[in-house]
Q: What sequence folds into this?
C-alpha cells in the first residue's frame, strides 16, 4: 500500500463522546456513488451491532446533468444503540458532494446539524447550476448549521497522485474519502468496507488501491482536522438474541417467495416486465436459478402476468411483480386468475402516481386499485409487509394463501419498504411450516374441476399431464361443479358468492390483530404497510413522555383480521395515517360505521416523519 | 410417436369433448376442429399431454371442444399463458388457437415475441379477415376498402400479412393452409406438432356469415389451381391446372414462367424450407393475389435452440455450479452476525 500524501501533523488523540442515535444523509450527483456509500455505512453499522434503518432517495433519471437539482441522489440512514423503527426524520449529518445536493437537502438537516461540503465544487458555475444566487458557504444561508468545508476533490487527488489512475477514476474515489471521514467521526471500523472493495474490484488492483487509499485518507484527514474536535461512539443495540443479517425489502421478498415455493415443493416462476421500483425483485430472483427459480422477462406487463398464470395452470407457483401502472395493465389477467381460481401472487411496489407519476418515489395510493380495480365482482386477497424484513414473512404467507385457497393474492408493498434495509432476525428453519399441496388424481367418479373443498371453498388444482382429468377452464362464467360454460343466472349468483365467501373465510386462517399499548382508550393509531415504522416510533416516544396511545397494524387488507371491528370499537378515536388521500380510512368508515376514524394524509414522495405523527396525535388527544 | 397404425391408442372420437359445438352452421372452424382431432389420433402421445389455449373470438372456443386440457383465456393473451406453461413443463404438446383479431390486433405483441423467442409451442392463426364474434367489423387482415359495419365508407387501414410478421420475427416453423382442404391442413398440423420450437400456421378460414367467400378468388374450386401454389421442399414452385407454370426470381422479384415436366429447373425457384436466412421465405410471403399465386404449405422449417430448452439448461447449469439450493443457505446467506 502506498503512503498517504497528506501533511500529517502529530496525531492528537481526540475525545470520544457517547451518542444514542445518529441520522446521516449522503447526497450527491446520481453518479457520485451515494447509494453505495450509504450501503457501506449501513453494512458497517450492522457489523458493529447497531440497529438501523435506511431510506434511499434517488431520481428517476439515470444520469441527470451533473450538478443539477434533479440529478441529486441521497441515502439516509439512522443507526442506534436503541431499537429504532425509521430511518430518522431530520439528519444530524449531511454530506453534500456539490451545491445542488446541499440545496436539495438543507430542509432535511436538524438545526445545529453538521454539514460536510466538498468545497472544491463550490465555484461560480456549480453554484449557479444549482440555482443559488450567491455562494451559500459565504453568505448567511447556513448560519443555523455547523459547516465543515472540505476540499474533497483536491484532497482525494492528492492522496492518489502516485497511483496509475486516470483523472476520472481518481474523481470517482472521492466518495470513499467522504466515507472515511464519517467512519472516523462515528468511530467505525473500516474493515468491512476494505474487504468489500477488495472483493468488488478484484480484477482491477489499481482501483482497489485507489478506493482504499481514499478511504484511509478521509479517515486520517478527519482525525487531524481541527474542524472535528471529537469522535462519537454508538454502542451496539440491545437486539433480541439471535442470528441477524442486513436485508433490504426486495431481498427479503425474493428469499420469501423462494422459501414459500420450496415449502410447497414447487418451482417458483417469476414473470415480470422491468418497471421501477419492482425491477430489483427480477434482478434478485434471476440470481437464484440453483433453487429452481425460473425468471421470465416478458415483452410487457400483460405477458408477465399471463405467463405466471400459465405456470400456475401447469402446477407450479406463478408470481408476477410490478408497480402501479403495470398493475393497471395486469387487471384483466388478474381477473382471469380469479375466474379460473388459480393460485397466483402479484407484487405491486407502489410508487408515485397517477400515470407515470414519480417512479422512484413512495406512496400508498394503490390500495383501492388492488382491492377493486377490476371489472365485475372480483374479490382478491391483499396483504402488505410493514418493514424490509417483514417482506420475507408476507411473501411466504402470500404463497401459502394462494395455494391453499386457489386464489390470486396481491402483495402490496411500497417503494420505501422494498428499498429500505434493516437488521433481520433470521427465522429458525424448523419453524417454517410446509405448505401442503394436493393435486387430484383420476378416480372412478367423473372429474369436477369446479367442485370445492368444503372448508376452504378451493377448487381442485388438477394439472395438465394428469391422466383422466382432462378439463377446460377459462374466463367465461362457469357452471358449478363441471366448470362448463354457463349463462344461467342463479348459477352465476352462486359462483359469485362462492368466490366472495372463499376470500372472506380466509379471515379465520390469519392471525388476529394485536394492539401495541392499552387495548382500549382514547386513541388507536392504525397503520398499514410502511406507516408501521414512524407510527411505532411515535407511540414509543409518547410513552416516554407519559402519554399512552395504542397502535394496531394491518398486515392483511383483504380480508381484514377477524377481530378488527372489535379492536376499533374499544377506542374513542382511530387515527389512520396514510400516504394517500384516505383510502384505508374510506374502507374503515364504510365497514365500521360507528367508528370515529380520522385521517392523516400526505402525498409528498416521502414517508411520514415521526414528528408529523406525533403532532397529529397531540392535536387529537 | 409411432407410424404403426395398429398400435395407435386413439381415434378422432377420443378427442371429442362432448360439449355442444356452437359455431355457425357452415363455419370453416368445424373442418379445422375435425382435422385437429384426426391429426392427434395419428400420434400415440397420451391424451392428457395436450393443452389447447385460446384467446377471445369465434375460433377461441376451440379448447371447449377438444377432450384434452384446455384454457380459454382473455383477448390476445393465449401465447403468454402458453409461454408460462411451457417454461414449467417440457412434456406437454401445447397449441395456441387464435384468430386475425385476437392474434394480430390485440395480441400482436405476444405473437411477435413468442415467435422470436422460439419457445416450443404451436400457434394456429385462423384468419377469416373479419371480426366474427363481435358481429362483423373489419380486422387487421381485411383488405383496404373493405365495407363493414364499422367502415361503411370502406376501410382505410392497410392490412397486415400474418406470415410476413412471422418471418420478420424469425419464427422457425411457418406454414399456411386452408379450411377447405383437410388433407393439406392435416399434414401441416402434423408437421407443426413434430417441430421443436415455435410453429406458426396461418389457416385461411371462411366466415360464411360476415365475410363469405373472402378467399374465393384464391381458393375457390375454379380458381385454386391457377392461384394457389403448393410448396414442396426441394421442388420447383409449379402450379396451374395443367402444371404449366412455375416461379423464378428476377432480382428479388418473383415472376411467373412457363413450365414443362422434365425441363431444366436451374433457373427456377426451388423450394428450400431449411434456408437458414429469412430472405427467401419473406419473398414467398409477398406472393399475393392477384399478381402472383398464393403459396400454401411449409414456408420455413429450421432448427434453433428453443427458449424453454435454454431456460432449463441455465437452471441445470446453476445447480451444477452452485449446488442445489437449500433453505439454510438461502435464508442465512453469507454475512450474518449473532446477538447473544
A:
Amino acid at each position: 500500500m502506498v503512503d498517504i500524501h497528506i501533511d500529517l501533523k502529530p496525531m492528537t488523540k481526540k475525545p470520544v463522546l457517547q451518542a444514542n442515535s445518529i441520522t446521516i444523509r449522503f447526497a450527491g450527483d446520481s453518479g457520485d456513488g451515494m447509494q453505495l456509500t450509504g450501503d457501506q455505512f449501513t453494512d458497517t453499522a450492522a457489523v458493529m451491532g447497531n440497529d438501523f434503518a435506511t431510506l434511499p432517495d434517488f431520481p428517476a433519471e439515470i444520469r441527470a446533468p451533473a450538478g443539477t437539482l434533479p440529478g441529486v441522489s441521497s441515502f439516509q440512514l439512522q443507526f442506534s444503540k436503541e431499537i429504532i423503527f425509521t430511518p430518522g426524520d431530520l439528519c444530524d449529518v449531511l454530506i453534500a458532494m456539490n451545491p445542488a445536493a446541499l440545496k436539495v437537502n438543507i430542509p432535511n438537516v436538524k438545526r445545529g446539524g453538521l454539514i460536510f461540503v466538498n468545497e472544491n465544487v463550490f465555484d461560480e458555475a456549480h453554484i449557479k447550476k444549482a440555482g443559488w444566487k450567491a455562494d451559500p458557504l459565504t453568505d448567511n444561508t447556513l448560519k443555523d448549521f455547523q459547516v465543515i468545508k472540505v476540499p474533497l476533490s483536491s484532497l482525494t487527488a492528492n492522496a492518489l497522485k502516485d497511483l496509475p489512475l486516470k483523472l476520472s477514476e481518481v474523481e470517482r474515489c472521492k466518495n470513499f474519502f467522504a466515507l472515511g471521514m464519517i467512519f472516523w467521526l462515528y468511530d467505525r471500523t473500516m474493515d468491512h468496507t476494505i474487504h468489500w472493495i477488495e472483493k468488488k474490484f478484484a480484477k482491477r488492483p489499481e482501483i482497489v488501491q485507489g478506493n482504499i487509499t481514499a478511504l484511509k485518507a478521509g479517515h486520517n484527514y478527519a482525525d487531524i482536522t481541527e474542524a472535528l474536535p471529537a469522535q462519537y461512539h454508538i454502542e451496539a443495540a440491545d437486539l433480541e438474541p439471535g442470528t441477524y443479517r442486513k436485508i433490504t425489502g426486495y431481498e427479503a421478498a425474493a428469499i420469501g417467495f423462494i422459501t414459500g415455493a420450496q415449502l410447497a415443493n414447487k418451482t417458483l416462476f417469476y414473470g415480470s416486465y422491468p418497471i421501477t421500483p419492482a425491477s430489483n425483485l427480477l434482478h434478485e430472483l434471476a440470481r437464484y436459478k440453483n433453487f429452481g427459480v425460473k425468471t421470465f422477462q416478458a415483452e410487457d406487463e400483460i405477458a408477465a402476468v399471463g405467463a405466471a398464470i400459465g405456470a400456475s395452470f401447469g402446477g407450479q407457483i406463478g408470481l408476477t411483480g410490478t408497480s402501479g401502472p403495470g398493475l393497471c395493465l395486469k387487471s384483466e389477467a388478474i381477473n382471469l386468475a380469479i375466474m379460473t381460481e388459480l393460485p397466483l401472487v402479484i407484487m405491486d411496489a407502489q410508487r408515485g402516481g397517477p400515470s407515470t407519476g414519480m417512479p422512484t418515489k413512495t406512496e400508498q395510493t394503490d390500495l383501492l386499485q388492488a382491492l377493486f380495480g377490476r371489472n365485475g365482482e372480483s374479490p382478491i386477497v391483499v396483504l402488505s409487509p410493514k418493514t424490509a424484513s417483514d417482506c420475507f414473512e408476507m411473501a411466504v404467507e402470500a404463497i401459502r394463501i394462494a395455494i391453499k385457497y386457489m386464489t390470486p393474492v396481491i402483495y402490496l408493498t411500497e417503494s420505501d419498504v422494498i428499498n429500505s434495509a434493516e437488521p433481520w432476525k433470521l427465522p429458525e428453519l424448523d419453524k417454517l411450516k410446509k405448505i401442503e399441496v394436493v393435486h387430484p388424481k383420476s378416480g372412478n367418479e367423473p372429474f369436477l374441476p369446479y367442485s370445492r373443498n368444503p372448508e376452504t371453498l378451493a377448487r381442485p388444482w388438477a394439472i395438465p399431464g394428469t391422466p383422466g382429468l382432462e378439463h377446460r377452464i377459462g374466463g367465461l362464467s362457469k357452471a358449478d361443479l363441471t366448470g362448463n360454460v354457463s349463462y344461467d343466472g342463479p348459477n352465476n349468483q352462486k359462483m359469485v358468492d362462492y368466490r366472495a365467501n372463499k376470500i372472506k373465510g380466509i379471515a379465520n386462517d390469519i392471525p388476529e390483530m394485536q394492539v401495541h399499548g392499552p387495548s382500549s382508550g382514547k386513541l388507536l393509531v392504525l397503520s398499514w404497510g410502511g406507516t408501521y415504522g414512524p407510527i411505532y416510533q411515535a407511540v414509543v416516544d409518547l410513552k416516554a413522555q407519559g402519554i399512552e396511545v395504542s397502535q394496531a397494524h394491518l398486515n392483511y387488507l383483504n380480508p381484514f383480521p377477524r377481530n378488527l371491528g372489535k379492536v376499533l370499537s374499544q377506542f374513542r378515536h382511530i387515527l389512520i395515517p396514510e400516504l394517500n388521500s384516505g383510502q384505508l380510512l374510506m374502507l374503515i368508515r364504510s365497514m365500521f360505521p360507528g367508528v370515529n376514524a380520522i385521517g392523516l394524509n400526505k402525498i409528498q414522495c416521502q414517508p411520514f416523519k415521526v414528528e408529523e405523527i406525533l403532532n397529529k396525535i397531540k392535536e387529537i388527544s | 410417436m409411432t407410424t404403426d397404425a395398429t398400435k395407435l391408442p386413439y381415434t378422432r372420437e377420443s378427442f371429442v369433448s362432448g360439449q355442444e359445438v356452437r359455431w355457425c352452421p357452415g363455419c370453416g372452424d368445424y373442418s379445422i376442429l375435425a382435422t385437429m382431432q384426426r391429426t392427434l389420433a395419428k400420434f400415440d402421445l397420451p391424451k392428457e399431454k395436450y393443452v389447447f389455449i385460446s384467446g377471445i373470438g369465434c375460433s377461441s372456443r376451440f379448447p371447449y371442444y377438444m377432450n384434452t386440457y384446455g384454457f380459454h383465456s382473455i383477448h390476445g393473451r393465449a401465447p403468454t399463458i402458453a409461454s408460462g406453461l411451457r417454461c414449467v413443463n417440457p412434456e406437454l404438446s401445447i397449441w395456441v388457437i387464435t384468430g386475425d383479431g385476437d392474434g394480430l390486433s390485440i395480441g400482436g405483441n405476444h405473437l411477435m415475441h413468442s415467435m422470436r423467442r422460439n419457445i416450443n409451442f404451436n400457434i394456429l392463426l385462423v384468419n377469416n379477415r373479419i371480426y366474427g364474434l363481435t358481429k362483423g367489423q373489419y380486422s387487421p387482415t381485411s383488405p383496404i376498402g373493405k365495407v363493414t359495419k364499422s367502415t361503411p365508407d370502406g376501410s382505410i387501414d392497410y392490412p397486415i400479412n400474418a406470415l410476413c410478421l412471422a418471418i420478420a420475427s424469425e419464427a422457425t416453423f411457418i406454414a399456411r393452409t386452408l379450411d377447405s382442404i383437410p388433407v393439406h391442413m392435416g399434414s401441416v398440423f402434423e408437421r407443426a406438432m413434430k417441430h421443436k420450437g415455435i410453429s406458426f400456421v396461418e389457416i385461411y378460414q371462411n366466415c360464411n356469415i360476415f365475410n363469405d367467400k373472402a378467399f374465393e378468388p384464391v381458393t375457390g374450386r375454379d380458381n385454386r389451381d391457377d392461384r394457389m401454389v403448393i410448396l414442396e421442399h426441394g421442388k420447383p414452385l409449379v402450379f396451374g391446372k395443367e402444371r404449366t407454370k412455375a416461379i423464378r426470381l428476377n432480382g428479388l422479384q418473383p415472376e411467373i414462367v412457363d413450365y414443362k415436366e422434365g425441363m431444366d429447373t436451374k433457373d427456377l425457384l426451388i423450394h428450400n424450407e431449411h434456408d437458414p436466412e429469412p430472405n427467401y421465405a419473406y419473398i414467398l410471403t409477398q406472393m399475393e393475389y392477384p399478381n402472383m399465386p398464393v403459396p400454401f404449405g411449409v414456408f420455413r422449417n429450421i432448427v434453433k435452440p428453443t427458449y424453454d430448452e435454454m431456460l432449463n439448461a441455465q437452471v441445470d447449469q446453476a445447480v451444477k455450479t452452485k449446488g442445489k439450493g437449500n433453505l439454510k443457505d438461502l435464508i442465512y446467506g453469507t454475512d450474518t452476525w449473532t446477538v447473544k
Chain A touches chain B through 70 residues (CB under 8 Å). Confidence is low (pLDDT under 50) at residues 1-10 of chain A.
